[in-house]
Amino acid sequence: MTDEAGPWLVVGLGNPGREYAGNRHNVGFMVADLLAGRVGAKFGRHRRAMAEVAEGRLGFGGPRLVLVKPLTYMNLSGGPVASLAQFYKVVPGQVIAVHDELDIGYGQLRVKCGGGEGGHNGLRSMSKSLGTKDYVRVRFGIGRPPGRQDPADYVLSDFAAVERKELEFLVDRAADVVESVITRGVEPTQNLYHGG
């Protein structure tokens, strides 16, 4: 992909603040942080949106990345994303949301473009603010809550000790998936990563 197509807006969904940092709901922030490290960029407060932004390139002379962590809390994520999409002139097809997903098992990664939000407030807010559902989602499986635990409490709890053993590897793999979407496209990435 060349620069003429404009940058890619990669949105890590999560909640700001130290108390949320290790939550399942914050896996999008974790992936965004890792990607920033890979491209040698640091997050800083954006002057036009309630978000932290890091800019870099994927590889030498590669596609431009604008990494975003909204600072509005999950259910209002769409406002800053829409402002930044407008500011950087990014079309919806080059917006990637990285988010936790209850409907797939822990550690499974799935990619899709468009479709429903599956009750995810961050996605719902993004779809509303962007005026479309036609953006890419990188879905990080967190599985269903055990027993009768409320899903709202589950997503706002930290990963269990047994999950944390694999978390670093899985976040790294999710970052690989984001890079693959940008360099290869959605379908080739699905073919590559949906086996496991």
Automatic annotation (TrEMBL):
Cellular location(s): Cytoplasm
What EC numbers are recorded for this enzyme? 3.1.1.29
Q: Which keywords does this Swiss-Prot/TrEMBL entry list?
A: Cytoplasm, Hydrolase, RNA-binding, tRNA-binding
CDD domains hit by this protein: PTH
| Site keyed Discriminates between blocked and unblocked aminoacyl-tRNA: positions | N15
Q: Which residues form the active site?
A: H25 (proton acceptor)
Identify the residue position(s) of the site Stabilizes the basic form of H active site to accept a proton. D100
Residues bound to tRNA: Y20, Y73, N75, N121
Per its record, what are the GO molecular function terms? peptidyl-tRNA hydrolase activity; tRNA binding
Top-rank taxon of the source lineage equals Bacteria
- Biological processes, Gene Ontology terms: protein quality control for misfolded or incompletely synthesized proteins; rescue of stalled ribosome
Judged by the first EC level, this protein's enzyme class is hydrolase
Catalytic activity, as annotated:
an N-acyl-L-alpha-aminoacyl-tRNA + H2O = an N-acyl-L-amino acid + a tRNA + H(+)
Matching entries from PANTHER family are given as:
PEPTIDYL-TRNA HYDROLASE
Q: Sorted alphabetically, which NCBIfam families does this protein's record hold?
A: pth
Q: Assembly and partners?
A: Monomer.
Briefly, what is this protein's role? Catalyzes the release of premature peptidyl moieties from peptidyl-tRNA molecules trapped in stalled 50S ribosomal subunits, and thus maintains levels of free tRNAs and 50S ribosomes. Hydrolyzes ribosome-free peptidyl-tRNAs (with 1 or more amino acids incorporated), which drop off the ribosome during protein synthesis, or as a result of ribosome stalling.
Q: Which family does it belong to?
A: Belongs to the PTH family.
Name of the protein described by the UniProt record: Peptidyl-tRNA hydrolase
Q: Which organism is it from?
A: Micromonospora krabiensis
Show the taxonomic lineage: Bacteria, Bacillati, Actinomycetota, Actinomycetes, Micromonosporales
